[in-house]
Amino acid sequence: MKRYLKVDDIGDLKQALKEAFEIKKNPYAFQELGKNKTIILVFFNSSLRTRLSTQKAAMNMGMNVMVLDINKDGWKLESEMGVVMDGDKPEHIKEAVPVIGQYCDIIGVRSFATFESKEDDYNEKVINQFIQYSGVPVISLESATRHPLQAFADLITIEEHKQKERPKVVLTWAPHPRALPQAVANSFAEWMKKADVEFVITHPRGYELADEFSQGANIEYDQRKAFKDADFIYAKNWSSFKDYGQVISQDRDWTVDEEKMALTNNAKFMHCLPVRRNMIVTDGVIESKNSIVVPQAANRVVSAQTVIKRMLESL
Ligand code: CP
187 lies in which domain range? Predict the structure, then answer.
């Protein structure tokens, strides 16, 4: 595996799950693969789970790990081509990325949507420059449009907690005070459409995801109807794709609460975290016995380790 950006990069999901469960059962069995190999994790944005779980995954594989918080520790990077660099960015990404590639065997990159240009975000301008110029395999630690390590961990978690062969999984938009990227929702939709689940997306009008992610999914604009008989409720906020990056509703009637969870088939509650309590979800729901947000976050180590293992095998 030379890159991990989206669901197609992992191939068959059943096989990926099989590998993930082997790793979960025996996390230190593959340390020879990572011996004397180095991964560098580059962050353009904040992180708790991705940073720690990917480090842990790489350490489980016997690798050396370096983390670079570009905004705090590095030079500000220019990513436009052919510009006169007379501003506040002293280093061009075209030098910085191949240099980082000299120091490692695998690079992980977190680079969120900036909302400055829908075209640049949806063309994955930043992570594609890492693929183009680094000379080493690249793992997305959440790019402008997708969060594939999160979606893989979500699938592992659903597989572990499902009570029936083909569960009903509902992705619900929920309110948030700030404009958030569509990446988590996009990836979750991309993965659930390929998984053996009944998949429903519910959101207020105006929050439709890009066609490539929503096509083929069931869209239900009535959140209560969507929740009926659901086995998993996955809450997430995202900003509008159509009115790109805009917050067009903060309707608290979309907060996931006990009354709406009672409409479900005793559904498990999921969220990628961090979560704003009593905006996205009530204290009662996130603290209920049906909340699986912590085991979901724990599976971030498993998804990252499965991907790193495949990359090490292909070096
Ligand atoms: N879910 C997730 O990616 O969390 P962090 O932003 O803390 O890494």
Answer: 150-297
